[in-house]
Amino acid sequence: MGKPASFSTKDRILGAAEELFAQHGFAGTSLRQVTSHADVNIAAVNYHFGSKENLVNEVFRRRMDEMTAARLGQLEQARSSQPGDLRAVLAAFVEPALALAQDRQSGGAFVRVIARAYAEKNDNLRKFLSDHYGHVLREFGKAIGACVPGLSKEELYWRLDFLAGALTYAMADFGLIKRPHNISEAAHRSKAAQELIHFAEAGFRANARTPDSSLT
Amino acid sequence: MGKPASFSTKDRILGAAEELFAQHGFAGTSLRQVTSHADVNIAAVNYHFGSKENLVNEVFRRRMDEMTAARLGQLEQARSSQPGDLRAVLAAFVEPALALAQDRQSGGAFVRVIARAYAEKNDNLRKFLSDHYGHVLREFGKAIGACVPGLSKEELYWRLDFLAGALTYAMADFGLIKRPHNISEAAHRSKAAQELIHFAEAGFRANARTPDSSLT
DNA sequence: GTCTATACGTGGATAGAC
DNA sequence: GTCTATCCACGTATAGAC
Q1: With a 7 Å cutoff on the CB, does A47 touch strand C?
Q2: Which of A55, A98, A110, A142 would staple A49 via disulfide (CB 3.0–4.6 Å)?
Q3: Chain C bases closer than 7 A to any CB of the protein
Q4: What's one Pfam family the UniProt record gives for this protein (chains A, B) (predicted)?
Q5: How far apart are CA B84 and CA B196, in angstroms?
Q6: CATH number of A8-50
């Protein structure tokens, strides 16, 4: 499956959708705009994707898979070359995410899909995210736990959620901090990553509030 | 302006909208549903609010103002009765937000408005949020800075953004952590607040990466 | 299998009568 | 201020051409 023919209708729809979603959001982009940009018929979108919602999810999944691979790869490298280094583990979690979020082509759309799961009561999307994103989180949970002994699993998961939240916020570029005009996007992103890693490192190293393990 | 007459059309629309938005999201709630519940004519919503988007913002603003007042009140109390206590300042920031997010009536709708600003390219809403929410953040920035001397303003604001992100995530109940069936919502929320405060406290106390002040 | 033309129902919004 | 009637864009479904 998947003919290697030049650029299929399906691919053209995905490309146009990603670009338009990133620029104008989901509600702000009609399927008629998408099919017009992709130069295909309006009905093609429902033929290939079933619904607008499904199209959104497919646009997202492509990039999500890339990011997951980048994260797990960087994590593996950190584990083998810098075992026990919490900062390296956190970097593997944070850096690929911020890199993707900043991508001019896909970044905007990517961040918005996650936010959409908040914004609308969309349990399907939520479940999809937790099924896949959850696995990555648990992998990082193990790695972090190995760097910070004496932290209960419950504490660890609470703090992972806080990190994920702070990261999502940073990906959406939503806070008070704005990039100064005289520094590049890449430099700003690098700074954000370093600051977040530093902040989270201290957070993870804070004493456990619910010690469930021995004091050996 | 604002006749104290029993319950105006406008109020009934606001009430019905808040309930339905919280239950079914924004896209999942039509104005016809809202006006039907409020027992007013479909055109009334556009007469009183101009657009659906504006109605959403008004629903949000009511609760946002409540939360802001609660936060600033609790902050003032912390400053006077426990000066220099970082945990008390963080509690003033975190607790009113989680309390509101959990409110069965308004909580769902409230969290979703914030998420909507991520999810859709809505610069008006974004600006509105930064104008108001930004002021509160800066106030808390001052208070936190007073508790953690030696932190540059830039560091402080980065970390405030991280806290706000983690808090938003927690408000949306979005992470791995799920409330166990045998503990109440109130207890779970209280636990979330304590965990987040503990995590953030350590984060704020981490050494500054860009020391711009003396080492006195 | 793929794609097109076309139609349906619902949504938010508006103009104008009362 | 409020309501009725109406408009137009939207997502979606279907029938049939290639």
Answers
A1: yes
A2: A55
A3: 2-7, 10-16
A4: TetR_N
A5: 19
A6: 1.10.10.60
